[in-house]
Amino acid sequence: MLFCSAAFMAGGMFAQDVPESKPSKKTKPVKNTFESVWLTDNQTVMVPAKGTLEFDIQHRFGTVENGKEDIWGIFAPSNIRLGINYAPIKNLFVGAGLTKEKTQIDLNAKYALFQQTAGQMPVSITYFGNMVIDARDKSNFRYGVHRLSYFNQLIIAKKITENFSAQAAPSLSWYNNVEAYVNSKGEIVKKMNNYHFAFSLSGRYKITDKMAVIAGYDQPLTQHLTNNPDPNISFGIEITTSSHAFQVFAGNYYSIVPQSNNVFNQNNYRDGQFLIGFNITRLWNF
What we know:
This protein has helices at residues 2-9, 258-264, and strands at 38-39, 42-43, 52-63, 79-86, 92-99, 104-114, 124-134, 148-159, 164-175, 180-182, 188-190, 195-206, 211-220, 232-240, 244-251, 275-285. By secondary structure, the protein is mainly beta.
C-alpha cells in the first residue's frame, strides 16, 4: 500500500503552472491507463468516450478443489453476468446487468472525477456506484426494501510507465437486510453489520501491445459477528483489440456483483479455493 501510494503521487511534486493562453501538451490527459473497464473482479478507473455502447459477458466456474471429479470446477455450478452500458455524456458511464446468482439485477453509474495529466494531476480518480435488486421469489423477503443493496467505490489510479498501471480503491457496501437470530431474551440480533468497508489493489503490466499480465488483491476491513469474508487474490492474462477486451484469470471470488464478493466471499486462498473466471467486453461507438 505504501509503495502504491508513493507511486501514485510521484510526479505531482514537479507540476508547473501553464498560462491559459498557451496550452501545453503536458496538460493533456494520460491515455489508456487501462484497456478495459474491468480488471478481474473490479471496475477500473477508465470511462469510455461519449457515445460508446458496451456489452459485458462475465463468467465464473466453480472452485478447483474437487479436482478431476468436476474437471477442476469447469463442470461445477457456475455464475454468469450479462451487462450493457452506455456513455451518454463525457466522463459518465451508466448501465445495467443481470447475474445468475440470486437473480440479481444491478443498475450502475461511473463518473470520471479527475484525469491524470503529465504536468498537473498525478492520478486519475473515478467514482463507481450501483444499486442491486435481489429478484428471487418474494417469499425470501419480509419487505420489498429488503431486496436492495448498494455499493460505492472511489477508484484512484496512475499510469506509472508506458507498460505499468496500478489502482487503489476503497469501497462501502450496504445491505438493507442481513441475517439475524433471536436470542434467549427474545431479541433479534444481527449476525452481520448492514455496512461493510473494503479495500482493493490492482495492477496491469503490458508484455506486448495487445497482451498484459493482470493481478489484484481485495481486503475486507469490517469485522462481523459471524461469517467474516475472506480476502481475494487474482492473477491472469488480458488480450485486447480496439473494440474487444478478453481477460482470463484465477481468483477466489465466485460472485460477480461487487457487494456480494466483498461481504459474502468464503473461498479462502490459503486452502487453495481458487476458481477460473473470464471477462469479455465488446465496444461500439456511435
